[in-house]
Structure prediction request, 1112 residues.
Amino acid sequence: MLTLHCPNCGVHADETDLHAEGEAHLKRFGPDSSDDDFHDYMFQRQNPKGVHFERWKHVYGCGKYFLAARCTATLEVFGTYSAQTHEPPQAIKDAISAKRPGWSWGDFS
Amino acid sequence: MSTRLALGGRLVNKNKAVSFAFNGKNLRGYEGDTLASALLANDQMLVGRSFKYHRPRGVIASGAEEPNGLVNLGKGSTFEPNQRMTTTELFEGLSATSQNHWPSLEFDVGAINTHLSRFLPAGFYYKMFIHPRPFWKYVYEPIIRHSAGLGKAPTEQDSDTYEHFHAHFDVMIVGGGISGLAAAHSSAQTGARVLLVEQTADWGGRAVVDAPKIDGLTAQEWVNKTVQDLESMGNVTMRLRMQGSGVYDHGYVLAYERLSDHAPEMEGPRHRLWRIRAKQIVTATGAIERPLSFAGNDIPGVLLAAAVRDYAINFGVSVGDRTVVVTNNDDAYRTAIVLKNAGLDIPAIIDARTAPEGDLIDEARALGIRIEFGKAVAKVKGGKRVTGVEICTQAGEGAVLEEISCDCVAMSGGWSPVVHLWSHCGGKLNWDDVQAMFRPDPERAPTGADGLGFVTTAGVANGHLFTAEAVADGFAAGRAAAKAAGFKSKAGQAPLGECAHEGPISAVWLMPQGAKHALRSKAWLDFQNDVKVSDVQLAAQEGYESVEHAKRYTTIGMATDQGKLSNINGLAILSKALNADIPNVGTTTFRPPYTPISLSSITGVAKNELFQPIRKTPMSDWHAANGADFEPVGQWRRPYAYIRGTETVEDAVNREVVNTREKLGLLDASTLGKLVVKGPDAGKFLDMMYTNMMSNLAVGKCRYGLMCSENGFLSDDGVVARIDEDTWLCHTTTGGAERIHAWMEDWLQCEWWDWKVYVANVTEQWAQVAVVGPNARKVLEKIGGMDVSKETLPFMQWADGTLGGFDARVYRISFSGELSYEIAVPASQGAAFWELLLAAGQEFGVMPYGTEALHIMRAEKGFIMIGDETDGTVIPQDLNLQWALSKKKTDYLGKRAHERSHMADPNRWKLVGLETLDGSVIPDGSYAIADGTNANGQRNTQGRITSTYYSPTLKKGIAMGLVLHGPDRMGEEIEFNKVDGTTVRAKIVDPVFYDKEGAKNNV
Prediction:
């Protein structure tokens, strides 16, 4: 039962108002992509103990998606940010680095 | 015998007798009694039978940790099994029955199991019941089900009410003993909003029983004063009979308030489940006394030492006349002292330690009590009641030195802090070797969103067993929690406690230390699940080295008490057997709730009509008043058919199909999803959403579209209408509107966020009526308005206008194959429009039809239905819908997936029609059988039924199904299995059974 700050409407939302929407920053592979790329896009997911990036939807609120950076082991939330981005903003990365020096996740670190 | 004492009983009102019944016997107790204390006062020591061996069992504890005293409580609609008699407050008319015995508590046939115990060791289920295979289902399981079990399931619906309550606090304190009260006081002083909860009916915890001094007052006086102080503060909420049940992420706490269990005549809800968000939580949950593991420690009359003391002081009840106290610590001496002072006999205190010293030992000695150091109980004698104990040296193997006759044994193996709530959300523990206990590690508290700890533990729960440190620790914990919650003001003065000096405990995990198998196999660890020392040792010997595996293999720590008494003792035995240190073996996981909470409290008000919302169309009342047999479709209620007179549902469905095909039918189609997709990039967006092209759809026209998941599987379908240059209206299935809306939002917000498109779900803005049948145009022309002729409004076009004075949008689309208009009017006018059509249609033979007629008519036409022909594994190609997969578009959702080898496999089963040779209806879910068997010995298959109906139009069974190479096998006969084991032959045919050339619609 997490609480996450919705950056779209500003509400500090209870998990009952939210819907988990899986891993953030997936890169879509469409027609003409290789079988491996498409397979990874469809089925391969990170499952880290530690820093993780997730999509959330404020489903019983403003209805908007946002992204969250948090630690799956300690439940610490490093920040939430707009879903309209291909990578975490620098401020989020800095917040993670301050708490988890040397972290990496996918292509990010 | 156990009886009521002349003196004592701080919680009972001896001026008010209460009558109750146990196993049909009428008994009397006092106001303030628990069921357990009242039964003991009536010398009812035997209260149940154990789970596996059906051994006689008595109450062993006085609180929530009780494993044996479980009863069926109440009758009929208030019946509830597995109620702990130690936490059940007595009320007038209470009726309880004991559990897990047959035919009676006193005489139990299953008790023969205790003589078979040699053959029923840990893991016997796995060892015994593997072979022969069929025996499990027909012999073993029915017998086990009859002989094992905890209580009975209720047979009536619960007649009480329950509710949820949401609350936010700065600091929540769990536990109303002296540490919790001190914590509440210090945190409240800072101005924080504080919630203090106590699971029992009284404040003060153990201190008010053992009566140390605090701030110069007796414990009771200090508790009274502190409670009074707290009650006068506006920022403090206090609740008795409310348990902190579970601590979850980010300061979420579930608490379980029992409002009227003790007074069933009270108005209002019985239980209230509090859903709390607290910035900081203090767990002042105290400790639970551990049993000692000696042979016969489960015989009725063997109790925890503090419980014996509780019954004497709180309820004025003596458990026995002659009590032998057996201990490894000083605290149990309090029990001996209390009983001796009450005039009862203490033949001996058996202390496993060799030379302990302390104030309490001196006091006992001064009272003339015989004390034996370095001694142990070799064995308890007795059957349904203790008759004596055999004494031996703790260091030996159990050679009996003497036998002491007694009728009660008060045992204490030390105290284990209640660390459950600390641990629920990840708080870690340290092993304290000196005190022989797991204590919370403050450096590794559960962490919140800020990465900092949000739980502080206080007092005895923090390993501070003695009054002075417990009360000071409570004060400090409350102040620290308030500070962490942002309240920096002064917390006032810490209370000063005084208590007797106690010497150190000596860990004793088995008594005597070298007990032989005969003794170990009668030394109980888990009383509820019948797990003995020998069982845990066997598990270790058989390789169950992980504590979690050993738990599941032996069942130690399972069921309603979740090992409150057994976990640490079992763990110690396991670690010894594995030659490992206790902290290296570790504990099992502590999971909420702390004690079982009622399922109804979790349900709250969400039952019956409030279980989930029911969505009704504007015409729903008319349907209900006109014979509708409703079926749920998503959250909607839709008429399955309209029953007339004495006809059956089947009759009604057939009548509706025939009438619609021959004359005129009306369908309430309001539930169909309607999504408006609008914006400069709407066309481009819909080209991605649908497999076919939508951007080139002309304004005023309609097109049937398919949607696939990115994984290529069919997800939804429906007719899309282009409203104007940048607006499309997408129909979805009834159940799909919200899902497809969310699906579109996902792609718009997270992938193509720069595309200029809005999506709005307008499903409920419109009432929609399908006017279907050869007379459809006639009735519309009769009510008058817009031109609905074939020339002006041909098939697959739509137009706005008025009909019968109603603003209407008319789509000429057909899901039945008949001439059909789907007419949308504003929702507020839906009922009036429906009634107008019914009235005007009288002369044309109008009848409403339901969803089953709709299904049959679409199947007669070979139209697919999402959820029948599709199940999440079906792609458009399987349904011969290649025509709807755009070749012009470079991309759409699902396109890449369709290129994968499995999707392009020519052996995928494909859609065909099926006609039985005898005209019968193939059962739903049937498989087409093929030659040979698979690796499991089951018949091979070559297809399956997706839709199957009796067609009243064709007067025979028709079906659609997916069949291997189906479309290439037209005319071939294959066999489908039936429920009775026989098969039915069916011919593979074109799935369009009716009006193949589409003439009926083309008018």
About this structure: The interface with chain A takes residues 248-250, 252, 277, 425-426, 447-451, 710-711, 742, 745-746, 749-751, 753, 890-891, 895-897, 899-900 of chain B (CB under 8 Å). The radius of gyration of chain B is 37 Å. Residues 467-484 of chain B form the longest helix (18 residues).
